[in-house]
Amino acid sequence: MQIALFAIRISTLRHRRHYCADNNDAAITCYHQNKSDEFTGIDIHKMRIAIIGAGCSGLTAIKHLVEAGLHDIVCYEKNDQIGGNWVYSDTPGRSSISKATHIISSKPMSQFSDFPMPDDYPDYPSHQQILAYFQAYARHFQLEQYIRFNVAVLRVEKIAQERWRLLLSDGTHEEFDYLLVANGHHTKPRHPGWKDRFAGTYLHAHEFKASQGLENKRVLVVGAGNSGCDCAVEASREAARVDMSLRTPQYIIPKLVMGKPTDTFAAAMQWLPQSIKNRLQKISLRIQIGRYRDYQLPEPDFSPTQAHPTINSVIFDRIRHGKIHPRPAIQDVSDHTVRFTDGASAQYDVIIAATGYTISFPFFDTDFINWENASHVPLYLRIFHPGHPSLFFIGLIQPQGCIWTLAEMQSRLIGQFLSGKTQLPSDWREQAEAEGAFWARHFIARPRHSIEVQYHPYRRQLLRMLQGKSVR
Question: Which end of the chain is more exposed for a tag (fewer CB within 10 A), N or C?
Answer without folding.
Answer: C
